Amino acid sequence: MIDPENEVYTRIATMLRDKFPGINIASEYVASPSAFPHVSITQSDSYPVSGRQDSSLQENLIAAMFEINVYSTKANSRKTECKNIMTAINDLLYSMNFRRLSMVPVPNMEDAAIYRITARYRVVTDGKYFYRR
Fold first, then answer.
1. What is the rounded distance in angstroms from the CA atom of residue 66 to the CA atom of residue 69?
2. What letters, b where the CB count within 10 A reaches 16 and e where it falls short, cover 93-108?
3. How far is CA 102 from each of CA 1, 65, 69, rounded to the nearest angstrom?
4. Would you state the pLDDT for residue 32?
5. Are 32 and 69 in contact (CB under 8 A)?
6. Percent helix, strand and coil across the chain, each rounded to 5?
7. Rounded Cα–Cα distance for residues 101 and 126 (Å)
């Protein structure tokens, strides 16, 4: 089974820690982050690419989807902070041949002081290389 989650998480987390010192990052969805800004990076789907399996019965290529959630509570600039973090993530993932499927602000009904943006990205991978298909 091809599983790119650790590679993708590590690349994003390393870049974010360099660009945004003190950022809180998780590899799973967190309903109530303990520190802000917070980013969750999860692989939300993975399936073999149709027509790419050969007689070895091994996966040659998979399509993987990742969901990124960015949260901020920064006074007077929550939205800007989220967008700056999401832009850095977007640039990195595009350089890895990911394609963004969606990006949308998500209202936090429990605490309006927390701003959140959710984005979903898709990529095809053989486990070593990432392809935009």
1. 10
2. beebebeeeeeeeeee
3. 26, 11, 12
4. 82
5. no
6. 25, 35, 40
7. 20
Match 């394609």 to its residue by tokens: 99
Cα separation, 40 vs 53, in Å, equals: 32
Q: Assess contact for 44 and 67: CB atoms under 8 A.
A: yes
Q: What's the pLDDT score for residue 133?
A: 66
pTM here is 0.93
Q: CA 60, CA 33: separation in Å to the nearest integer?
A: 37
Is the pLDDT confidence value at 19 over 90?
yes
Rounded to the nearest angstrom, the gap between the alpha carbon of residue 56 and the centroid of all alpha carbons in its chain is 31
Q: What is the pLDDT of residue 119?
A: 98
- In order of 6, 7, 53, 65, the CA distances from 83 in angstroms are 24, 23, 39, 21
How confident is the model over 21-78, as pLDDT tens digits? Answer: 999 999 998 888 899 999 999 999 999 887 766 677 778 899 999 999 999 999 999 9
| Terminal alpha carbon distance of the chain | 20
As given in the structure block, the two tokens for residue 5 are 């989650």
